[in-house]
Amino acid sequence: MTACIKTRRDIICLLAARNCLRTSAALRVQMATDIERLVSFEEAYYDQYDYYNLLEYSGHAGGKGRSKREIELNTNRHCPAGHERKIAEKYHNSQMKRRRTKSSSS
């Protein structure tokens, strides 16, 4: 035993840590084999249409049948100037309000 291991509890903790390292290594090996199996399954059973469905269409209803590329092209993009649409809408509404008040007052 080394000098840093003094109690029985330290020995148990050390053994548990070694066991966890072994377990995590075994899990990594298992995950690697699972990924290899998945890749070989895809190569064996997927065709161009399956890959098209996986890559182009997402599973949510927000796209309404559009591809990911179409969604990205027609989505709201970041505007560095800020809330231009809101400012323009407020200006338009205030102009319409002024016109209504002028026409009703005369």
Task: Provide a descriptive summary of the structure in words.
With 106 residues, this protein is mostly helical. Helices cover 71% and strands 0% of the residues. The protein starts with 7 loop residues before the first helix and ends with a helix. The mean pLDDT is 74.
Uncertain segments: none
Name the structural class: mainly alpha
Largest sheet: none
Order of helices and strands: HHHH
What does the overall shape look like?
elongated
DSSP strand count: 0
Q: Terminal Cα separation, in Å?
A: 102 Å
The total of helices stands at: 4
User: What's the overall average pLDDT, rounded?
Assistant: 74
Radius of gyration: 32 Å
Please report which band the strand proportion falls in: under 5%, 5-15%, 15-25%, 25-35%, 35-45% or over 45%: under 5%
Helix content: over 70%
Biased composition (Basic and acidic residues): 81-92
Family: Belongs to the NUPR family.
Region (Disordered): 76-106
Biased composition (Basic residues): 95-106
